[in-house]
Amino acid sequence: VADVFAAIFRRYAELTDFGQAEKYVNELAHYTQWVQTLETRLLGRANRWPTRTKSDCAKWYRSIAPPSLVDLG
After folding, report:
1. Could you tell me the pTM of the whole model?
2. Which helix (H) or strand (E) holds 29?
3. Which of 26, 29, 41, 28 lies closest to 72, judged by CA?
4. For 33-70, what is each residue's pLDDT tens digit?
5. Contacts of 70 (CB under 8 A, 6+ apart)
């Protein structure tokens, strides 16, 4: 199941943040709907993208994160 979540979030980021073209009509709409459904099952943003940390690794990870995924609830 985790791999399915990852694939959906990856493709959503590719479409929204990296400007990839849709492979079929309404692909972005489909992925947006799926992401909205899955978003309720994610850990809190503070756990996924910590802002108050001394960890250089966590700071780096957040700095390269796709904005569309950071913005998820």
Report:
1. 0.84
2. helix 27-39
3. 41
4. 999 999 999 888 888 888 888 889 988 988 999 999 98
5. 45, 49, 62
